[in-house]
Design a protein that fits this description.
The protein has 412 residues and is mainly alpha-helical. 68% of the residues lie in helices and 6% in strands.
Length: 412
């Protein structure tokens, strides 16, 4: 698939101007496919370097480059939106992609692995203590990432006076209610907040920064606990998989350290160019096909970078190592909350692109319920195809909600 990467880079440099040879849809889809081999190369490079380095070096590499594909893609999209004057469209796209990654890693990846592994091995067992550690860290991650959203719901901004809006659409049950969704609103003043109505706007950015500082600390503590001080927890095996060679997993160095660094550098540069192609062509695709930016973000932008991890998880499940399949999903979800979101908050401080760490209600409640369902599923330390099917069905229901978001609520 590497020739696809070269093709996208050539498109980026050669196919510019008012009359491009390749249409926007073609550029967008080819660029998405090109993410897959780059994500694989970056993951392989990180694994190889970490296997030949100290614990601290491996942790730093994992924290720095573990989410480099998504971070480059999200930052490029928001910068492009700022340049085009459509920052709200691209910010909503990024937030939906973050939500989609969390839903996929908590529901879809473990669900598919449980179904495939359960059909082959009937019932699979895993270390519930290890899953409990990952679940606890995930609870902390989700709580910190969505704390500003809960705060904004508790203390909404003060109601503005003398508001003039260019476009308002009724959102009542039968279209005749007194609730409206409005766009392009301007105000000449703001009512003074009362005791019951506190203007929380000025508190949102400091709160987001505090969460962005604390969340990486939780990631570091989790690494120290799992890989250093309490690594014996991960060596506890269940009776039916103790003697299985496939259950004994350790990172190995497929490449030399120098080769790993070279591939990591080249893949990161190529990813930045491909992200430019995706960001520059996604809005025409949304406009021409009438697709919601939330649906595209929660599906395509969320799933494509994680396809190598999905394939690895399925392979581990087929080898009767469902514990590692579960760990793949949990690790990605933790990195989204503890690394990707803080980076985006700091990017907003350095180069304002309109990113505010406040998600919509669908994202909030779908992630919270998914976290609870995932932890409930992991309680007994066993998995089968029934549990996996339940997780996949809940995932599809959540995706359906994003698909049916009303046209009036879209930003693109």
């Amino acid at each position: 698939m590497l020739p696809i990467v070269l093709a996208v880079i050539l498109i980026y440099f050669l196919d510019k101007g008012e009359n491009p040879v390749v249409p926007s849809l073609g550029k967008f889809m080819v660029a998405l496919v090109a993410i897959i081999p780059l994500a694989y190369c970056i993951g392989m490079a990180i694994t190889s370097i970490a296997a030949q380095s100290s614990f601290l070096m491996g942790a730093v590499l994992n924290a720095t480059f573990g989410s480099v594909v998504e971070i480059i893609l999200y930052v490029s999209a928001m910068v492009k939106g700022k340049e085009n004057g459509t920052e709200q469209c691209y910010v909503e796209l990024v937030k939906s992609a973050l939500t989609g990654t969390l839903l996929a890693t908590m529901l879809l990846i473990p669900g598919i692995c449980m179904v495939i592994g359960g059909l082959k091995h009937t019932e699979q067992k895993f270390n519930s203590r290890t899953a409990g550690v990952s679940s606890a860290l995930l609870f902390v991650s989700v709580a910190g990432a969505f704390a500003p959203t809960l705060f904004s719901m508790s203390y909404p901004p003060a109601v503005a006076s003398n508001v003039t809006c260019m476009d308002c659409v009724p959102v009542g049950g039968n279209g005749t209610g007194n609730r409206f969704l409005c766009f392009d609103c301007n105000t000449n003043g703001t009512n003074k907040p009362t005791d019951q109505q506190i203007d929380s706007t000025s508190y949102m950015k400091p709160l987001s920064v505090v969460c962005a500082v604390l969340l990486p600390l939780a990631y570091i503590v989790g690494l120290l606990f799992s890989l250093k001080t309490h690594k014996h927890i991960h060596m506890i095996a269940e009776p039916d998989v103790k003697s299985s060679k496939s259950a004994q997993h350790s990172y190995s160095a497929e490449w030399s350290r120098l080769k790993g660094f070279i591939f990591l550098l080249i893949a990161s540069i190529a990813m930045s160019l491909i992200a430019e192609v995706i960001a520059g062509n996604i809005q025409p695709v949304l406009r021409d096909f009438g697709i919601s930016e939330s649906f595209v973000g929660v599906t395509l932008l969320a799933l494509v970078p994680d396809i190598p991890e999905i394939v690895n998880g399925i392979q581990f499940a087929l080898q009767n190592n469902i514990a590692l399949s579960i760990e793949v999903g949990s690790s990605i979800a933790v990195q989204v909350c503890l690394l990707q979101i803080p980076v985006l908050v700091f990017v907003e401080l350095i180069h304002p692109v309109g990113f505010v760490l406040v998600f919509n209600n669908i994202s909030l409640w779908s992630v919270l319920l998914s976290t609870l369902l995932m932890n409930y599923t992991y309680m007994d330390g066993k998995s089968d195809y029934f549990q996996g099917t339940a997780l996949c069905i809940v995932y599809m229901i959540a995706i359906a909600m994003f698909y049916f978001i009303p046209t009036a609520a879209r930003r693109c």
